[in-house]
Amino acid sequence: MSYRSKNQNQFLHPFTFFIVSAITEIYETMKADMTTRATKKLYFFLYFLDPVIKKVLAPELAKMDNMLKGMSKVTREDFLGILDKIMTSLHVAGYFAAAKWGPTTKTTTLKELEMKIREAVYEKEKREESENKDAGD
Amino acid sequence: MPGIERDLADFLAEAITNDYLLCILVSSYTQAKVKTHNLPFGLGKTTLSMHLCKDINMKSYDWVLDNAMDYNAYQVALKLEPGRERMNATVWDDVQSTAPAVQGVPIAIRKLANFISVDRPELACLIMNAPNMNAISSPLRKLVTFEIIVVQRGLYEVQKISYHKNFKNPLQDIARLDYMEELCKDNPFPPLPKRIEMKYRAWRIKQKLQLYPGLLDELEKYVKFRDWAPKNDDDIAEVLSMSAEIVKSGRDYVIKLPNAVGSQLHRQRVKLTVQA
Q: How far is the CA of B51 from the CAs of A63, B13, B125, B193, in angstroms?
């Protein structure tokens, strides 16, 4: 996240910022072919997620626990399988909704603009007319 | 997303029917969401402004040209005369030529910007045309709430300028752009009718001719001051014989002349024969 200035960062929700930073770090570690270290980071990261997601990922958490205790071998395939499941859960839970759906393209025409203004002015005139009528009665 | 629920038309309608004032800048030399031609001139800023002004005022192009086109700050100020009948929109064309972004902003422009912000009843929408935000005077820049970027001829996008608190530096707000909408590509805004375009061009020439003598005058002074002006003997004032003191002013030495002589010779070329 170093490419973002401090001013930009302050508008990110702290938790979103944390998630994005953690994922970036795991990604960077994986890119450097340090699978064990990446698994360790992923394991700790899981504890900070929503209880709902943690419940879904309980088998993976146990698997990673075994990996880190040395009871089972840490492989790139296992790691990627777990990461895939975590990312799917995060996407389903809507953690990246803001990034995916905004800003959308919204099109308009000058005719629509003109019609809206005319409508608003007409409504105002009608309202004023009825108010004047009421005041007169 | 602040721009999704309400569009420019909603804001304009509200400004007209309620006591709001919107300042809109129509620019073309900045790229935001849509990839633009990024050209400062000739993309149709004035055409769009006139379309908008016509639609907002619900009048004809002729009416817009005769009543709602301004070329300088004075003409805009006339529209703000207190007690005047409320006008829906007016266009300030080529703001960069009459209120440019310069270091020492003239007090008159500052006062106008202050007056615009307090004088809402007379005007609902001020549309300013300039190549981009940096080209106009800073007090006017702060009034702008919407920037309409003309992407290419016939197309534009609307960005709303919003201010956010800078928690680390509370005295300086952070300005941001919120994308609002863009014109449908299948439905671009048309060029002005030929007759109106000719009329606009004539009006613009007339306005520019008012600025031209002042510009020439300034440039003449500038060239003379820089010693680039052609030199001939006619420029040299009549010969005087007098004694005067030489004093140091900054890094230079200057000849101290009496007021009467100095005011006559100020910025003129003189030939000196010095005798200690």
A: 66, 16, 14, 11
Residue of A nearest to B173 (CA): A7
Q: Which residues of chain B neighbour A112 with C-beta distances below 8 Å?
A: 9
User: Domain B2-190's class?
Assistant: alpha beta
Tokens at residue B169, please?
């530096």
A46 and A112 co-located in one domain = no
Give CATH 3.40.50 domain extents, chain B: 2-190
Interface of B with A (CB under 8 A): 1, 3-4, 7-10, 12-14, 16-17, 33, 51-52, 55-56, 58, 164, 166-168, 174, 178-185, 187, 189
List chain A residues with CB under 8 Å of B8: 108, 113
Sheet containing B155-164, strands listed edge to edge, beginning at the edge strand earlier in sequence: A107-108, B174-183, B155-164, B146-152, B22-27, B123-129, B87-92, B69-70
Residue B255: count of CB within 10 angstroms of its CB: 13
Its domain, for residue A124, covers 107-137
d(CA B234, CA B250) in angstroms, rounded, equals 31
CB-based burial of residue A67 (10 Å sphere; 0-12 exposed, 13-18 middle, 19+ buried)?
buried
The answer, as to whether pTM is greater than 0.80, is: no
**Alpha-carbon distances of B188 from B126, B157, B191, rounded to whole Å:** 23, 11, 9
Residue B216, C-beta contacts closer than 8 angstroms, at least 6 positions apart: none
Same domain, A93 and A114: no
pLDDT of A43-93, one tens digit each?
Answer: 999 888 888 888 888 888 888 888 888 888 878 888 888 889 888 888 888
Q: Where are the alpha helices (DSSP H) in B119-258?
A: 138-141, 194-225
φ, ψ of residue A18 in degrees (nearest 5): -65, -45
Do residue A96 and residue A118 come from a single domain?
A: no
The Cα B126–Cα B111 span in angstroms is: 16
A102 touches chain B (CB under 8 A): yes
ipTM of the complex: 0.71
- How many Å apart are CA B61 and CA B59, to the nearest integer? 7
